[in-house]
Design brief:
This protein is mainly α and 479 residues long. 72% of the residues lie in helices and 2% in strands. The protein is built from 21 helices and 2 strands.
Length: 479
């Protein structure tokens, strides 16, 4: 078994502490001028970035775009209500969450997350190919079946399996990495105009294939990059965690071995995790942020189209403006997450959520644009926090187990977003969507103000003591 000194060294590096090993034990001291300045993510790290970015984009392209633009039309072809496809998406996401919950109890037994992610990715792209090439206007029922399966598998692939890989590659710089990679969501929402033009300008009538094919090719390339160039741990390919070359390769290798061994005996089991107040105080706001951002994204064409005609220059400018703000917001909140902690980044995101909800209640074109821009600030960042929050407040060896519970619960909440926002939109009007955002934003703010990192530390100490594991200060000082 690896000496605990190696483990404590790694934890200290994650927290930004230097270390000193003496005959009396481990001593830690803060010395910012001794820290190595880390730039970029390294070649393999950027390959992981491309892999995750295009996986996130695939979720927008193959689930959001068809529902957003053609959902009511395809529903009508089957004699269903106009929000039927939104409900199909919801059921697919729900089933995906159920599978994630089952997997969460066995994630420590998965020998290779990389292989697991690759299998899910291949299945997702095969299903995405069917969504791309089957004509929904001629075979709406068959197309809807594969759309349902695509929604199910893509959600597990891009938010669950690759998310674990990110935690293993960037434990200290997770906020910066996630802040950049989740730009895929607002970027995808901005690119919806290209889909609309391609679908409706096809020479032989509306064509799903024409709209999706370029993005399908790009996402397949991303999958191939991930399969070939991204292993489970950076040490397995000569790279470095957080791209920090100051970490000794031999020590990093031993740390990897230590983590793999200790994941099998994690004290954060399913029951212990779900009984933790800290878990719920963090996860519920994460879920509400996802509901607000993704719910609006799924109905954005209809909501924006209230004042700005679909396909018009004004429509394109509004969606582009939201995307630009969302990209900036995702990156900036990622930096805040890395430097000041996940809690502060989430509080800022929830603040914009509340402002968006208040302004969205005013039924004018200007108010709608402003409220959507405020929402854009946290649109991409909302997907950051399930990864960064777990890394920030739990031990690195417990990350896969805790993340495997946080992510399904947050996405269980998010899975209802399309149904909730479509139902409110088509029955009461878009202002009720913003009322929902306002109420959930206030609830999230209260829960985050109650949350304290010490809640995780206290629970962790009790669980480790009961399991006969040594206690230490690894979770002290988390922001």
């Amino acid at each position: 078994m690896l000496n605990d000194a190696y483990y404590m060294f790694f934890i200290s590096k994650c927290l930004g502490y230097d270390y000193l090993i003496t005959t009396e034990g481990l001593w830690f001291f803060k010395e910012d001028n001794m820290q190595t300045k880390v730039r970029g993510f390294g070649f393999r790290g950027w390959m992981l970035f491309i892999y995750q970015f295009l996986a996130y984009l695939s979720m927008v392209v193959f689930t959001n775009w068809p529902m957003n633009v053609l959902g009511s039309t395809i529903s009508g072809l089957m004699g269903k209500q106009e929000n039927f496809i939104a409900n199909v998406y919801t059921v697919g996401m729900l089933l995906g969450v159920v599978i994630q919950i089952f997997l969460s109890s066995n994630v420590g037994k998965i020998k290779s997350i990389r292989v697991f992610a690759a299998i899910l990715g291949v299945i997702s792209m095969v299903l995405a190919a069917l969504v791309t090439f089957i004509n929904p206007f001629q075979s709406p029922v068959i197309w809807t079946v594969f759309y349902f399966l695509t929604s199910l598998f893509i959600s597990i692939w891009c938010t669950f399996s690759i998310g674990i890989l990110i935690g293993q590659w960037f434990p200290r710089r997770k906020g910066t990495f996630m802040g950049l990679v989740t730009i895929a969501f607002p970027a995808g929402n901005a690119l919806i105009s290209t889909f609309i033009v391609a679908v409706f300008t096809a020479p032989n009538g509306p064509s799903m294939t024409r709209g999706l094919l370029p993005y399908f090719i790009a996402c397949v390339i991303g999958l191939i990059i991930g399969i070939i160039l991204v292993p489970d741990f950076p040490e397995q390919c000569g790279a470095y965690r957080d791209n920090d070359r100051s970490m000794d390769p031999e020590m990093a290798k031993k740390m990897t071995e230590f983590e793999i061994e200790n994941r099998k005996t994690t004290v954060w089991t399913l029951g212990k995790t779900l009984s933790s107040s800290a878990f719920w105080l963090l996860t519920i706001p994460m879920g509400f942020l996802l509901i607000g951002s993704i719910g609006i994204m799924t109905q954005s064409t209809t909501i924006i189209g209230t004042y700005f005609p679909l396909g018009s220059t004004s429509f394109t400018l509004v969606t582009l403006g939201i995307a630009v703000i969302a990209c900036i917001g995702s990156y900036v909140l990622g930096l805040v997450d890395t430097k000041f902690g996940t809690k502060l980044a989430m509080l800022i995101a929830v603040g914009f959520m509340i402002v968006s909800g208040v302004i969205g209640l005013i039924k004018t074109p200007t108010a709608l644009v402003i409220s959507l821009l405020c929402l854009g600030v946290f649109m991409g960042a909302a997907s950051n926090f399930t990864v960064s929050g777990v890394i920030q407040y739990w031990r690195i060896e417990d990350f896969p187990s805790v993340f495997a519970r946080v992510n399904p619960v947050a996405n269980l909440m998010q899975s209802f977003s399309a149904m909730i926002f479509a139902t409110l939109l088509f029955t009461l009007g878009y202002t009720y969507d913003f009322l929902f955002i306002l109420v959930t934003g206030v609830i999230s703010m209260v829960l985050l103000l109650i949350f304290r990192p010490s809640l995780v530390k206290n629970k962790d100490d009790k669980l480790r003591a009961a399991a006969g594991k040594p206690l230490d200060d690894a979770l002290v000082g988390r922001k």
